[in-house]
């Protein structure tokens, strides 16, 4: 290589392109035109290398043969390959003397000055797609992994949502079922309510119009209010639930027991036509209710009143049938309770009559010109002297004529008109008492009036406004007021007695006639019922009862009055038994206020009769 440079220097020129060797021709592309050099590949100590020699001149061609020559060697393995990889971004370059390439490798030979290969450089060429894949591959893989994860989360979420949705659907259906149940069933007892009962009744009536039969029972517990008032509403609820359970055990699966409200129940007996079967069901209900109810550790006894309607015997209209069932129920209550009554057309006429009387009574109370207070004398049994008068209301109806209290007082009690009527009678009696200072006036009070907590205040105000001394007024009440054991009634009676009113117990002997409530309520007088008086002289038992009542009354320091005295024999027997006062037609009928003066004037004659 040095000799080649010296030879070129001797002739004074570079080899031209046509005569130069391949190595020389390739090298002159990187040098100036007058540079004298030579280069080629070879092996140095068994390693591939690129060697070059270049003449160093000062610009003058003379004596160039003695000019220095720069020789350089560059090994083509090791560091060169690493730099080549870094500079040219060639992947995995390697040198080998063997021309055999590995899979996926490209190769280029190293040629010596004679054009013979002395070795080979191999590398893995990068295809455009591979480069892009190398750059984008991780990102795409990451995106794919993220998408797979998101899809997994979505699938999991959908799976959970599916289960949640299924749960929500189940809960919704359960809620709908519960709402449906509550809409048609009573919360306390679980029985069908009014809506469900009416629906089933309509179905039964549709069958009845095709010839089938059914029966409606309307039920109402007796003395339920007393249980609520004495033991509390919790005990009342327990009673209602147990009553419902007893009813359900009596009827068939095809029948319907429903709670309408409060202590009111209805029963629909399907496919029933035999009166004997219906009577048997009613008797079983009565017997079941007569068994004691265990409430708060106490045995409580109640009863039940039942109204019966036979379908289609009395119609097939639902509203009309329920009205008739209530009419029959009312008849059962009015005839003693704890019994059953079957509806008949005559009951409906009675109800219509009562409705007409109620309407007329309201009008009479508003007008104030049809109702009058009459007075019947009460006399001293020993002297025959008039000691008092009982105020009795009479109604001169414009079309029905004179109506007695038993014809309209019960209606006034049921409709709430009794308070207005009773207080009106008391006001008239107080006015009369003020004009008759030597007499007492007896006024009847209804048990219904005692349900009002301010009754005492109102009665005291009436006496005060009339200018009447309350000690002249004797308030008559029945045993039912005392038997209810109502704190309101007890408080009212105490307030009335403290104000000066006297308290008389009417119709004594026909009810419980308990000594305990006579002592507890401290009444002033007991009045023997007229039924015992009328049997005197004919019934030894009646005489014994009268004697016992008189003895009891005197032992307790009470005045004893006998009602219904119509003959001198009765008068003498009652006086002999020790009665203090007598009252009856023998002495006087009930007279209007304008006849009182004449009655008192004839008192001497009454004493002669006595």
UniProtKB/TrEMBL annotation:
Q: Which SMART domains match?
A: EAL, GGDEF
Coiled-coil regions in this chain?
none
Annotated GO MF terms: catalytic activity
Where is the GGDEF domain positioned along the sequence?
Answer: 212-345
Q: InterPro entries given for it? A: Biofilm_reg_signaling, EAL_dom, EAL_sf, GGDEF_dom, Nucleotide_cyclase, Rev_trsase/Diguanyl_cyclase
Tell me which PANTHER family the record gives. Answer: BIOFILM ARCHITECTURE MAINTENANCE PROTEIN MBAA, DIGUANYLATE CYCLASE DGCP
> What is the protein's name according to its record?
Diguanylate cyclase (GGDEF)-like protein
The EAL domain is annotated at 354-604
Instruction: Give the superkingdom in one word.
Output: Bacteria
- Region (Disordered) spans which residues? 8-28
The organism is Novosphingobium hassiacum
